[in-house]
Amino acid sequence: MLVNSLNFLIFFGIVFFIYYIPLKEKTKSQNWLLFVASYVFYGIAAWQMIPLLFTATTIFYFLGFAIRRGNEKKASLLTTLGVCIGVGLLLYFKYLNFFIQSFADLFNTIGLKANWGTFNIILPLGISFFTFRLISYIIEVRRGKMVPTKDFVVFANYIAFFPTIMSGPIDRPNSFIPQLTNKRTFNYGLASDGCRQIIWGMSKKMIIADNLATIVNPVWADIPNQSGSTLFITAILYSIQMYTDFSGYSDMAIGIGKILGFRITKNFNYPYFTRNVSEYWRNWHMSLTSWLTDYVFMPLNVKFRDLGNFGLILAIIINMVVVGLWHGANWTFALFGLYHGLLFIPLILSGSFFKKKKLKTNKLGIPYLKDVLKMLGTFLLVTLGLVIFRADNIGQFWDYINGFFNFSNFFKLTLDKKELVPLALFIVIMFILEWFERGKEFALSTFLTKNNIVFRWSFYFFLIVMLFVMSSKQQEFIYFQF
Amino acid sequence: MNQQDVLNQVQEIFQDQLDDESIILTNESTANDVDDWDSLTHIMLVVAIEKQFKIKFTSMEILSWRNVGEMIDNILNKLN
Question: Which region is the signal sequence (chain A) (predicted)?
């Protein structure tokens, strides 16, 4: 059930009605409802995984108490156990076959015959997201930053909250659990802000990302027959597709949360307006990067603190490879992470990694040429990274890059211009709107409320009509596979 | 050395490392109250504090502090 489908609208409508009318101001009952709704929502997508989700939730619920009550040694041991269970789940479901295959390939290349079978493991939806929530809960308890929650339903809701279980954002227990215990009454301001965010997210996803997918996918399916310019433009389009797809999804999830009275953590902060890769990672998939900063990068950085810049570089490279591999078991993801890790080296050595320069503009709000060039440079570096990310394997990535340099018919653009031109117009409108509203949570957050009612409703009407006119074949969200 | 002495010295280290004379620390200060105090500069600050007081924290200690006061207590514990 996609969040931008009619089925979801019906599902959400029922939840919304019960949540705010019969269960008005009954926090405990509302939590029960959310719990049932979350398990139904997850069960529709992957009913076989319900026992696993429930068991893991129960184990971590009790681990939280045991860590809190235990002495130093016991707490440390139990935390390690919890992290191992969490990581173990991920390794088993996402990486086991990859390891078996990689070792078999390795043995075969050195001449040893290895013919090992791989397991038939179903890929559980959302596992990368809910295991990270489980792990962060016990680490926060261990670090003494929060008290474990006694209410099982509250904890289970934190792990399985239906707007975010499939693709995040990955909320932290310290900010999310208290919201589940607080009273939630219908807040008109927050809910209408949520609706605006959903419309904006849907527009990005259905007007831009889904249409880009129909242009990008055929090119990737037939790389050898594409010209250099086609491959170049397609790479750029994929960067935009990735951003509009994933940030569109995040906006919808956050918006749904707002309607139910929750503040879900931010996931994107206009990442394509950043001037170097370090800035980019602070603004792209923020709930994942901040998770890894706290639980992977910081401990490594603390460990390596006496090694100076070398220690910092090492910590960043390991962290970025983990970022890459989190997406799945494929050498392309490892290479993607390594590539981004290496891009930090010049920033660290030149010192610009430590400086946070505010972006200045002229009187009209337009950035200076120097900054525009830096943004473009960062965008192109990110685009190259996403070519590695999108490739099925390293060989395909290599074919793609070779295709770039196919100069014999470089300028023969094979993309359909009739499809491309209106889409390009929407992309430009989106970026202009986002640029001028970049200080806000999302582009429509105050842009329309500042304007008069006629303009405001005309704009909503325009977007909604466009959602119908432009929406092509519904595409799954890219991040559902991770 | 008492709490206040340590706090004063730590404050000087912060001013020096973050290059900002206007930083005033209290026991309740957190990274949210001080500009430029983030996960990166935090490590620089820790290294400078360890050098100044000739002590060594464990990773767990460094990752558990919730505010300046907890860090100061940790330093005092090590010194005594």
Answer: none
Q: Is the confidence at residue A97, as pLDDT, over 80?
A: no
Rounded Cα–Cα distance for residues A98 and A306 (Å): 36
Written out in words, the top-level CATH class of the domain with range B3-79 is mainly alpha
Each residue's pLDDT tens digit, A229-251:
999 999 999 999 999 999 999 99
CA-closest candidate to residue A193, choices A262, A271, A259, A268:
A259
Which amino acid appears at position A466 of this protein? Answer: M
| Cα angle A280, A323, A389; round to 5 | 80
B44/A311 Cα distance (integer angstroms): 12
Nearest to B39 among A293, A305, A356 (CB): A293
Instruction: Check residue A367 and report its DSSP letter.
Output: B
The residue ranges of DSSP E strands in A72-173, in sequence order, are none
User: Any idea which residue has 């969200």 for tokens?
Assistant: A477
In angstroms, the CA A56 to CA A404 distance is 47
The catalytic position among A184, A327, A340, A390 is A327
What SS3 state is found at A251? helix
Give A-chain residues touching B36 at CB under 8 angstroms: 356
Is residue A137 a contact partner of residue A147, using CB atoms and an 8 Å limit?
Answer: no
DSSP-derived 3-state class of residue B66: coil
Q: Judge whether A327 counts as a catalytic residue.
A: yes
CA dist A351 and A445 (Å) reads 35
Is A297 in the B-facing interface, judged by CB distances under 8 Å?
Answer: yes
Which residues are paired to A367 by β-bridges?
A361
Residue (of A316, A332, A476) closest to A398 by Cα position: A332
DSSP-assigned letter for residue B72: H
Has residue A150 got a pLDDT over 90? Answer: yes
For chain B, the structural domain boundaries read 3-79
Phi, psi for A367 (deg, rounded to 5) = -70, 160
By C-alpha distance, which of A155, A139, A186 is closest to A61?
A: A155
pTM, entire model: 0.89
Count CB-CB contacts under 10 A for residue A474.
11
Q: What is the four-CA torsion angle of A18, A23, A27, A29, rounded to 10 degrees?
A: -80
